[in-house]
UniProtKB/TrEMBL annotation:
PROSITE patterns attached to this UniProt entry: TAT (PS51318)
Region (Disordered): 1-24
Taxonomic lineage of the native organism: Bacteria, Bacillati, Bacillota, Bacilli, Bacillales
InterPro entries attached to this UniProt entry: TAT_signal (IPR006311)
Top-rank taxon: Bacteria
Full protein name: Peptidase C14
Organism: Paenibacillus tianmuensis
Length: 789
């Protein structure tokens, strides 16, 4: 290790020979040369630069005094600053001469470097990696090991704008890594098209005071925008057969123009339902040429593409491995509420954000902590195989205007991994639009009423979220994008709301919890503590919602069973398990749900007035409905068929309102399908409720089949009915049931033509039977029962 003697200026190398040690006298002459090879061998290039930074010396070093070692080794000259370097007399400049520069302004200021004089070079002086001598031809070029430094340009703080240095370093293809050793300010919006560059700000602050205006509505106008280049090679094919889901074999018109490992932007023509309704719109790589009209890509389709659809391929030259790390970014203020008007310049032109990528592969962003941004902190479009990690956004400048205040927005992306990130009072932490095979884990958002985790619904598929917290909203941005997503899995998540009620297929929610959240003390966030889910391959396990679950049916693509297992849901008054059809504010029916749902080992609690309908067949296994304490509750049933095995009712009534047909025709009562209820498996009913009945039907248009087996119904008072049947056409069979206390209410006219009432082998304890219909050929309820007074 070399160090300098401040008094003598002597460089000392412990245990070095006299040939390896040398002195530069204070009179400005080098008394003994240091061989370049030995310096670099002893220190490495990086160490040589550090030695140069610490080295004192005269104003000029004499090139004439440098002698050969006798072994053909070139020698190294020393100067204290860049000014001294560029002031060297032409007579001392020999082609290939190496000079240690002790610092940028003065020796030891950190801007030291090793340079080489290139007599034939015509490069422009950029102030850091290339210096022109004041007199003479050629230039000095930095000798480096691929690592660049802003200090080479005399930038030691944010007072000097760093744009020129950034351009010079990044556009130098011999530099693979750029390091910052101070805070920096940028006033330009830089666009780079190169690959294999890492910029590490090492935790220093980046600001944009005085930055140039952005173009309108341009989230890619970041301080650093890494962008692949489109080529003019465009190939279009009209599909002659369906491309099935999961296929990685794509049809082309002529495979001869495709080359293995080449990259293409593949885009299907949009569906007529929306300008952005495209199931395929990604940057993908050729992995195999199969035949004259088929090519394999590195992507399995998430959606089938029908015969006759038009598919366009454009060859791309992506950027690869452009990575930005460890930055503390502070944006600049913009006028408040940019949604109301658009003066010049507009707020989006003023605002700033740190980094963006387009047509990029393996371009990671890590350790970026930002505040006061306008557009997303990390903006991505047509990216693949990337990681965004340990990034943070706190209190952005704007979040009401679409696209603003995001930590990361990712459009048309594949194989992305977002992890260990967090936001505070932002719009979105993670936004996916047309994304596939991506994962988000251990990310957390507070002040989350805007929704930390969202997808637009542009046919996203195979997304996984693990161990996150914050509001979720999937496929919820409108029909322009398609309102569609498929195979989204969320595990171990805490949210104010989970909203996935549009056309989302095969949604899996596991160990997810919707909790009541407050926007400020005492002010509850609207609809917090709720799930809104689509019943299309839905599976929920171990989930809880403090105030509501709403199930609707927006699509019928799924092939797996709809199932809710081991969950618990609080239900506020007037809320809907199955959403009703409304005319204005008047309920007129239920959203058609022509599927089946099984709920097992679960409970609904605090039930007061809840709609449960629009499900063809609802199977309840060991599932409980528990009324609001001291008040009881009513569950309005619009399902066609309910099967209850085990579980039961506590202070609740199932009120049968009639089922609606599959198309939701509520204008003609004749279209109402029959309903049926089966209770067995040791179910238990108990307590009382406001309807004073556990099971009730009073609609004269209802046709209901009642099947009672092994279950126990115990009324808390004499006025509570085990069943209350006053209208419609009814078919009732009770065999082996146990009724205790309370009464029966069954009007004779409810079992007329086409109906029947048959009760036998039942145990009845102190039940008031006076309101049973008179026995006849179709009404039997005395024989075979065991009555206890």
């Amino acid at each position: 290790m070399f160090f300098s003697d401040n008094k003598t200026g002597k460089l000392n190398a412990p245990n070095a020979t006299s040939e390896e040690n040398g002195t530069i006298g204070m009179n400005g002459k080098a008394n003994e040369a240091i061989s370049r090879r030995k310096v670099l061998k002893t220190l490495g290039i990086g160490g040589a630069i550090l030695a140069g930074s610490a080295f004192g010396g005269s104003r000029f070093a004499s090139a004439e005094s440098l002698q050969s070692s006798g072994k053909g080794e070139r020698q190294v000259m020393w100067v204290a600053s860049v000014e001294e370097l560029t002031s060297l007399p032409p007579g001392q400049l020999k082609d290939g001469l190496h000079v240690f520069v002790g610092g940028y302004f003065m020796s030891g200021d950190g801007g030291g470097k090793l340079v080489r004089y290139m007599a034939g070079s015509a490069k422009a002086d950029n102030g850091g990696t290339v210096h022109k001598p004041v007199k003479g031809q050629g230039c000095f070029e930095v000798v480096h090991d691929g690592v660049g430094d802003f200090r080479w340009f005399g930038i030691f703080d944010a007072k000097t704008n760093a744009d020129g240095a950034l351009d010079a370093l990044v556009n130098d293809l011999s530099i693979r890594r750029v390091e910052a050793y101070s805070d920096l300010n940028f006033v330009k919006r830089h666009v780079f098209h190169r690959s294999d560059i890492e910029i590490d700000f090492q935790g220093h602050t980046v600001t944009t005071e005085g930055i140039e205006l952005n173009t309108v509505d341009n989230p890619f106008g970041a301080v650093m925008f890494f962008q692949g280049i489109k080529t003019d090679m465009v190939h279009t094919v009209t599909l002659t057969e369906e491309l099935p889901e999961y296929s990685d074999i794509f049809e082309v018109a002529d495979s001869s123009i495709f080359v293995v490992n080449s990259w293409w932007h593949a885009q299907i023509k949009n569906n007529p339902g929306g300008s952005a309704q495209r199931e395929l719109d990604y940057l993908i790589q050729v992995t195999e040429i199969l035949d004259a009209t088929h090519v394999r890509f590195n992507y399995k389709l998430g959606w089938p593409l029908a015969k006759g659809r038009q598919l366009t391929y454009r060859k791309m030259n992506p950027v690869f491995r452009c990575r930005v790390r460890n930055m503390s970014f502070t944006g600049i203020p913009v006028p408040p509420n940019g949604t109301s008007s658009r003066p010049f310049p507009t707020w989006d032109q003023i605002g700033s954000n740190p980094v963006a990528y387009e047509f990029a592969v393996e371009c990671d962003a890590s350790g970026i902590k930002a505040t006061k941004v306008f557009w997303p902190v990390v903006m991505r479009r047509y990216n693949t195989h990337y990681v965004t990690e340990r990034c943070q956004l706190m209190n952005p400048e704007e979040r009401d205007w679409g696209g603003t205040g995001y930590l990361t927005q990712q459009i048309n992306v594949l194989y992305g991994h977002v992890k260990d990130c967090n936001t505070s009072n932002a719009r979105h932490l993670n936004d996916f639009t047309c994304a596939a095979y991506c994962m988000v884990e251990n990310c957390h958002g507070d002040g989350d009423e805007y929704g930390p985790f969202v997808t637009h619904g542009q046919f996203e598929h195979d997304l996984t979220y693990i161990g996150n917290s914050g509001l979720l909203s999937f496929a919820n941005s409108g029909s322009t994008w398609g309102d569609s997503a498929k195979r989204v899995t969320v595990k171990k998540h805490i949210a104010s709301r989970i909203v996935a009620h549009k056309r989302i297929t095969d949604l899996t929610l596991e160990d997810c919890h919707a909790v009541v959240t407050y926007t400020k003390p005492g002010v509850k966030m609207a609809n917090s503590g709720s799930f809104w889910v689509n019943m299309d391959g839905l599976q929920m396990r171990g989930c809880t919602a403090q105030e509501m679950i709403t199930i609707s049916k927006g699509s019928s693509r799924g092939k797996r069973k709809n199932m809710i297992d081991s969950c618990s849901f609080g239900m506020l008054k007037g809320y809907e398990v199955a959403r009703p059809i409304r005319t204005g504010t008047t309920q007129v029916g239920y959203t058609p749900c022509n599927g089946e749902l099984t709920i097992l080992n679960s409970e609904f609690y605090n039930v007061e007035d809840v709609n449960l309908g629009s499900i063809d067949k609802l199977t309840l296994i060991n599932t409980w409905f528990k009324g609001l304490p001291q008040a009881g509750g009513t569950v309005k049933i619009g399902s066609r068929e309910i099967v209850m095995q085990g579980g039961g009712l506590v202070d609740c009534c199932l009120l049968f309102t009639g089922a609606w047909d599959k198309i939701g025709d509520v204008n003609n009562a004749k279209n109402k399908p029959d309903q049926s209820i089966t209770i067995d498996g040791g179910a238990v009913f108990g307590g009382t409720n406001g309807e004073k009945a556990f099971l009730k039907s009073v609609d004269p248009a209802n046709v209901i089949t009642w099947s009672f087996g092994n279950y126990r119904s115990a009324a808390a008072d004499a006025n509570t009915a085990h069943f209350h049947i006053q209208g419609g056409t009814n078919k009732l069979k009770a065999v082996g049931s146990h009724f205790a206390g309370g009464k029966y209410e069954a009007a004779g006219g409810a079992f007329g033509s086409g109906g029947y009432f048959f009760m036998t082998s039942c145990l009845e304890e102190k039940v008031n039977r006076t309101a049973l219909p008179a026995e006849n050929d179709t009404v039997k309820h005395s024989a075979g029962n065991f009555l206890m007074a």
